[in-house]
Amino acid sequence: xxxxxxxxxxxxxxxxxxxxxxxxxxxxxxxxxxxxxxxxxxxxxxxxxxxxxxxxxxxxxxxxxxxxxxxxxxxxxxxxxxxxxxxxxxxxxxxxxxxxxxxxxxxxxxxxxxxxxxxxxxxxxxxxxxxxxxxxxxxxxxxxxxxxxxxxxxxxxxxxxxxxxxxxxxxxxxxxxxxxxxxxxxxxxxxxxxxxxxxxxxxxxxxxxxxxxxxxxxxxxxxxxxxxxxxxxxxxxxxxxxxxxxxxxxxxxxxxxxxxxxxxxxxxxxxxxxxxxxxxxxxxxxxxxxxxxxxxxxxxxxxxxxxxxxxxxxxxxxxxxxxxxxxxxxxxxxxxxx
Length: 338
Known about the structure:
By secondary structure, the chain is α/β, with parallel strands linked by helices.
């Protein structure tokens, strides 16, 4: 067990050889900055003052040659090889309401949602509550490195985690998950993580924007908003985008919520109306989800608490649009994934 000392603030915590410096800090309630948790965003960089570490991924995307020269490492990838002293700016914002824990997850339900999105439901050996919109790290057998997936359910006890996951062509993790993980199988899980969770105390209506497997956290947030006494008077608008008609989903899950059609509204859109590979016709909105959001709400976007999730290109376009529309950054919630 290594001792990690944070310089300048006189704090120390323990990190075992199988954990990372970031996740061990979050488990004991420290506000260590992070976002993607898989080595791609770089938000968890720290400076190694003394000691030695190794990265879980030998060459994570966010670790540059300049970082190496300056002895900067990624907290989500760095495992200590002994006691270490590090320099990092802790922030209250990153403290976990539910500290993440490592457990075993048993798969008990698999359901198809679309041709390439499937819901996987797991029961946990050690229950772990989470906030709507958060994610977990799943270790898929025979796949190097954990993958981040957002939960779609709502739970107070944390006995179950449900995930709506999109199959990525040639993706090592999802190809294996879809083809080789079956009912009764057990995988390692770690969580919850993420900062794009539902803010029940925010005094605004809610806008959820999703594409692809960004469906999962937005469904969790909408389900929680529908059930929350604090949000009983709020409207929830849910924009979902896909390439073609066969990619559109989510409405049946929302339709069963109290208030659907009265305070909960669903706005689907496709970006490839005339060339849907499934051969389905489409008579609804056509366009990319940031454009649909701008078309629907315009300058009123600034009156919403906004949550979004989806492919990197969609997320980047959504963020640019929100900045253009002068939506206050404090009202925008998104976890970077790559």
